[in-house]
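Reminder to self: keep the SMILES exactly as supplied, no canonicalising. Ligand is zinc ion.
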Amino acid sequence: MAHSNRRKFVKNLGAIIAAGAAADLSLGASPYKPTPQLTPQLTPGLVPYPAPGVFRPGKTFVGIQMSPHTMLDEGIDRCLDLCQSIAGVNAVFPYSHAFHTGTLGKPLRDLAKDHGAMPRDLRNKVPGVWVKHNDKYFSETSLRIKSSDPSLEFAGRDLFSEIRKPADRRGMKVFARILESSGLHIENFNKVLTVDTYGNPGRSACWSNPDYANFWNATVTDMFNSYELDGFQWGAERMGPLMNIILPWNNNAPGCFCQHCIERGKASNIDPGRAREGYRLLFEYVQRLMTDAPKPPEGVFTIFLRHIMRYPEILSWEYLYRQSREDIQKGMYTAIKSIKPDAVVGWHVDHQPSSWDIVYRAEMSYEEMAPYSDYIKLILYHEVLGPRIRSWYLDRFKKTILSEISIEQSLELYYALFGYDRNAEPGVDKLSSEGFSPDYVYRETRRSVASANGKTKIFAGIGIDVPGSPPDDPETVYQATLKALQANAGGIVISREYEEMRVPNLEAIGRAVKAWDTMSGL
Ligand SMILES: [Zn+2]
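Structure tokens returned for the bound complex:
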């Protein structure tokens, strides 16, 4: 049913584009009808949006992720009004630091064109860091956040100061959001790099390096002393060394074996030399599997298992890696709470760990993360999961340790191991063109809530209009949102980025939240 709706939707969309973007609000059977109303401070040329108050959400937490420049480009008031009146948003999550990317700007093809303001291609034209830092907080680390190039658009603005009053007027919370990874915006980053199994520097920073840990503590200490923030979300989209060998996102040699990790290993009675040798041999084994070299006659998976058996330090080192990551989060949590005890602090779990990284899943429960987590936000993008499972999971495993089973068997195994309904989700032939169902959102939320065991909240990261995704159908978006709430999510965070999200899908989320609030008497 969802897919016939999608076809209908695509057909409707074509008609709307032909008729002009102003018709977008009429899409979808909304039980409430926002009343368009002219606001006097509107920038000339912008289409007005309903004034705040049209849709006052209940108690359900509804966050929305966005790139900061979009809010400034569309206008803070206008953007908040749209989010609140259409989707019931009561918390905004702009990036304070976008360490993960060279630019927050996006090509026009990925940007929504029905927000009333025509989007602009701002690639390489806007900053990646959106707060002003004070050196005094960074005395315990050699790392520094570089100042933004003043010639970039919006470089002179201070979003997290400017947004406070407009957010307060609407009863909305402001969460700063960070994605880490590269050292693009960080001075002295080469001092904290990981070391791979061959002794070469990696491209990421080491979680066990105290200089890097102190950098994060300094960053959040500065932010929560300098800005009035209600909450914080931090994420790092990198996988552990074991998973990156068997399901290679890249062919980088595994790590980390820096002096800090070696000390950490020794303190945990794990032989660093054995771990390093085991990782090197396993890495070389799997890399060879991806060439035309003859496969081991005793069996591809069997020899993988032999490596793990001969070098159990591989698993111990992987767990150590995960613990070091969690320690970074613990440090930030403690630093923020010491400044603002009621700040809401939580973590972004990206799509791989939430939905197809069984190593991450096995390492610890969400309950174990709860002592330093007010919430854990899982990426649950139902539409784009189809193509991602095809190309990022099945095709990669087929080249490595699961080459002995067919793609069809591998998909069956995936559905079974992850607890998703094979009858509700696409078969191999449909994966690239169809998304997963709302039932996936329900099942993954329910599993995660069980894993948290009441000790921390699970926020469902509902994804709409994610680039690379089959087209979103508002009815499916509505169902996915409702299913997440029915599975006892502590709230939702609309993802990936506001600037990609089209109004009919935002409206579908708003309808679902409203329906849930009514159903649950909020
Ligand atoms: Zn290290």
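Points to follow up:
Residues 1-54 have pLDDT under 50 and may be disordered.
Residues 382 and 436 are 5 Å apart (CA to CA).
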